[in-house]
Predict the 3D structure of the following.
Amino acid sequence: MEETESLFSPTDLEQLAEHGISQEEATEQIAYLREGKSYLNLEGSCSLKRGIMQVPSHEMPYYLDLWEEYRANPSHKICKFVPASGAATRMFQQLYELLDKGSLDPEELSTEQRHFFDHIESFPFFGELSETCLRNEWSTVGKLLEGGRYDLVVKSLLSPSGMNYGHQPKGLIPFHKYPDKYIRTAATEHLVEGALYTKNRDGIVRVHYTVSPEHSDFFRQHIERSRGRIEGDYGVIVESSFSCQSSGSDTLALDEEGNPFRTHDGKLLFRPGGHGALIENLNALESDIIFIKNIDNVSMDHLKSNTILYKKLIGGILLAVQERIFGYLHQLERGRNSHTQLEEIVHFLDETLCIKIPQIDLLNDKDLAERLVQKLNRPIRVCGMVRNDGEPGGGPYIVRDSDGSTSLQIVETSQIDPNNEHDVALQQGSKYFNPVDIVCSPYNYKGEHFNLPDYVNKRTAFVSHKSKDGKKLLALERPGLWNGAMDHWNTLFVEVPSDTFTPVKTVVDLLRNEHQSTDDLD
């Protein structure tokens, strides 16, 4: 308590309370920042031999029928959860470098910049950009480019005096132009996906977007404008909802001396806790089944077939696994299970979920049954995994937990000890990549909603080096939504085709085939 009092003044405690952060939580954050990161203990990388399920074509109809039957029932609430608070700034990062450069020769452009301008008419926002350049510069895009005024074109695209795309959320940037000149943003493409695999018998499609507070109204208005066209084209009723990351999920920072970082006016500095804080938003949804997918991972209609097929497939797999887990939990609750029955459950945990319980031979049947309940009675998720073609980011691993048992986890690079030769070798040999293609269930076998924050592994938070007003600081980012925030979930990995992963990280990614109309392709 003395340590807490020395850390925070009465004014600090008032500031914490206003943010919705308790003293205990703030003290834990400071302690973690001082101790530094902790790494996971990797048992192995997942493969088709162990950890990743590959569904044979003859088994697909079974899972697809399960899903179609489930979603046809109006009493089942299905929702798409789309993290969409990210700004488009990074998407246009290379173009920002051209502002205030004046006239340039084409040779002075980077490869990506030249690629952008060489194909500028292929972007879905070209029409709007043309009008903006005429209004702001009294010149066409073509004339400006002939004169080397790339900076003025970029200014019309990104600045507040132009289209202001650099300050818009990525979800509201036009991604796709269809042959009838109909343009869809990433946000509206998610409505279309929802219509194709989540609508129930009444035609209801539910999509929940997490957005930043400053963009909340823009998102609502955009979805409202887009809703009518989607409902008419697909015969659905769209029920969209929105939430913002709570200020209570913000985190503190440390200065170079290891003390709470303070702004120029002496106040504590709060920083957004990262996308892992969205576990609170996910927890607030009252949906039986929730699909999770990033805002920028969408494709045009002519390439959606595999995406829709495998979304339905992993939905059916979730239902099948959930039914089996619930059956075992009801069986264990009734009691008087034979040792053979308990061994069947042990085998299921090992073969299906890669959960091995340590020193199982030392447990009597009563203690074993309790351990099995503890392992089974958790939120469930099925995660699609694609073949690793050099994409940066996390992947599927078997991890040894603190209790000695193993489990399936999505592990990010920051969670792997760079000095552990065994774990680094596993990472380098990993054959699969996490595209964020998840379907999950937040309810237990009694129909009660799990409190999802209870299943977060706080020790997987990430400490990063940042700066503020020219001063260095240590920042704390909460455990990622699909790794540390879902650490204590029951997980199943399923191989999905690589063409279901079509993200847009930079603006030139929109020139890839999956984001171009068939009329625009050679």
Notes: The longest helix spans residues 305-334. The chain has a mean pLDDT of 91. The longest strand covers residues 380-387. The radius of gyration is 25 Å.
